[in-house]
């Protein structure tokens, strides 16, 4: 069912994919689909968790344990690489949501009820950066939430740019280098 959902969502976008279409693609009845999934949001989350070739979820779950250990730069490069892969793979699925405000609002509410969504990714990365800040690895004046937003925003923009232009994303190391370099004007 998840393979069928992934196929339909990738080819039609989440907004235009229907549970009826997904069930037909999977070779099941729509009723059978609802025995396994509460709604289309559950299908979408199942696709994200099990059919998107990225380790972003596992990496984010392990960030708490990595704080204060190892290289912050290497960890952020790993996060950036996984985020770019994740956003590149999911952008065609999720972009259609923004064309239908009512569907976007319903999807946002469903994700909030499940404590999932892009805000959770940013919050986990910000928490890691705050822990590294407390450990002295990041400047005390830095804003961990803003750093997380900047890195993930750059990753999302890279994914968008790749789809829009067919040009590759900048290497994750370049994004992290730009983030960690002091941009204070010298004059």
UniProtKB/TrEMBL annotation:
<keyword id="KW-0805">Transcription regulation</keyword>
<dbReference type="InterPro" id="IPR050109">
    <property type="entry name" value="HTH-type_TetR-like_transc_reg"/>
</dbReference>
<dbReference type="InterPro" id="IPR009057">
    <property type="entry name" value="Homeodomain-like_sf"/>
</dbReference>
<feature type="DNA-binding region" description="H-T-H motif">
    <location>
        <begin position="18"/>
        <end position="37"/>
    </location>
</feature>
<protein>
    <submittedName>
        <fullName>TetR/AcrR family transcriptional regulator</fullName>
    </submittedName>
</protein>
<keyword id="KW-0238">DNA-binding</keyword>
<dbReference type="InterPro" id="IPR036271">
    <property type="entry name" value="Tet_transcr_reg_TetR-rel_C_sf"/>
</dbReference>
<dbReference type="GO" id="GO:0003700">
    <property type="term" value="F:DNA-binding transcription factor activity"/>
</dbReference>
<dbReference type="InterPro" id="IPR001647">
    <property type="entry name" value="HTH_TetR"/>
</dbReference>
<dbReference type="GO" id="GO:0000976">
    <property type="term" value="F:transcription cis-regulatory region binding"/>
</dbReference>
<feature type="region of interest" description="Disordered">
    <location>
        <begin position="167"/>
        <end position="187"/>
    </location>
</feature>
<keyword id="KW-0804">Transcription</keyword>
<feature type="domain" description="HTH tetR-type">
    <location>
        <begin position="1"/>
        <end position="55"/>
    </location>
</feature>
<dbReference type="Pfam" id="PF00440">
    <property type="entry name" value="TetR_N"/>
</dbReference>
